[in-house]
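A quick aside before the break. I want you to see a complete sequence-to-structure record at least once, exactly as it would be stored in a machine-readable document. Don't worry about memorizing anything.
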Amino acid sequence: MQAPLMTTGGYSAKVTMRLIIEGRSLAVSQAGPDMLILTEPATLPACEGEFELTIDATTRRWPASIKPQPQASRELKVDFGSLCG
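That is the input. The structure line, written in tokens, reads:
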């Protein structure tokens, strides 16, 4: 016998992530401790940028150093600045 479905006052946050580099805003679909997965492949030089995370109406940004990549890719190796700050 299955337990009855219970509904509670659930909440779903609106979350968006972007990588901002050299005047470009790139959509991010996943983020990890040393990598980002972009929504679309991109060719980027080794450079400095910002990782932006918005949850509902609250936005935070962190410095992000993009490591060199040989070709267009969705996965980028990134060195984030202090994520605790």
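Two observations worth writing down. The longest strand covers residues 47-55. The chain has no helices and six strands. We'll return to this after the break.
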